[in-house]
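Input structure tokens:
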């Protein structure tokens, strides 16, 4: 937070507590009315403010003037310290904008942004703060990335795959082999797989037939190494 932002925050705080200076309003009713409202606070964003916090601002102002309303500068490098209420609010607001970021990365970003000093605030301190406010754990896990082919049910999509196998002796001659297989996209089960001495379509035809016999008919068959004009339509769309 730079000096201009600190001044903007202080002006906002001053504006809230100013009516309390000369007794123009009933303090208790005034603070109670403000507590339930959402305020747009410079730098921190929209949030509610507790009566206790506003009373602290008022007390600080009466003791030390306008300067006391500014958020504290982080100049105490090398000295361990606790997170102040302002620091906590600031970190929580940042966290809410990136709730699924790994905490280790979040901690490093706080350091890079100058929000905290690594020598002052430990990683475990940030962990405890986020846990206390339910901003870490299972409820904040990132939504799994959905791949191009990712179906939730078995036998919706089978993907054909070809892998180069070892050389084996066939009729006295070393021959390269190819493994052709189908993989169910949901369960990763292999309906059928077989080695062949050729990567031509005849091998895929055999694997397809055997897979259908053993595991039934899927909704979609996908083979990215076979062109449509060389594959019978029944293999393109089993339905």
């Amino acid at each position: 937070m730079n000096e201009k932002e600190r001044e903007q925050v202080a002006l906002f705080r001053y504006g809230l507590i100013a009516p309390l200076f000369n007794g123009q309003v009933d303090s208790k009713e005034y603070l109670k009315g403000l507590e339930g409202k959402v305020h747009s606070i410079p730098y921190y964003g929209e949030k509610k403010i507790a009566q206790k916090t506003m009373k602290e601002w008022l007390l600080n102002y009466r003791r030390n003037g306008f300067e006391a309303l500014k958020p504290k500068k982080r100049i105490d490098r090398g000295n361990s310290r606790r997170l102040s209420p302002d620091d906590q609010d600031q970190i929580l607001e940042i966290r809410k904008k990136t709730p699924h970021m790994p905490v280790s990365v979040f901690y490093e970003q706080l350091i890079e942004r100058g929000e905290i000093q690594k020598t002052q605030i430990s990683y475990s301190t940030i962990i405890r703060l986020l846990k206390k406010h339910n901003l870490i754990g299972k409820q904040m896990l990132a939504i799994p990335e959905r791949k191009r082919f990712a179906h939730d049910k078995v036998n919706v999509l089978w993907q054909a795959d070809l892998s180069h196998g070892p050389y084996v002796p066939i009729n006295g001659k070393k021959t390269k082999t190819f493994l052709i297989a189908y993989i169910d996209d949901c369960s990763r089960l292999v309906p059928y797989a077989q080695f062949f001495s050729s990567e031509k379509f005849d091998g895929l035809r055999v694997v397809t037939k055997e897979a259908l016999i053993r595991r039934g008919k899927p909704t979609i068959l996908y083979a990215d190494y076979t062109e449509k004009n060389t594959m019978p339509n029944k293999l393109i769309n089993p339905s």
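Residues 3-69 form one domain. The beta strands are 38-41, 45-48, 157-170, 173-184, 192-196, 220-222.
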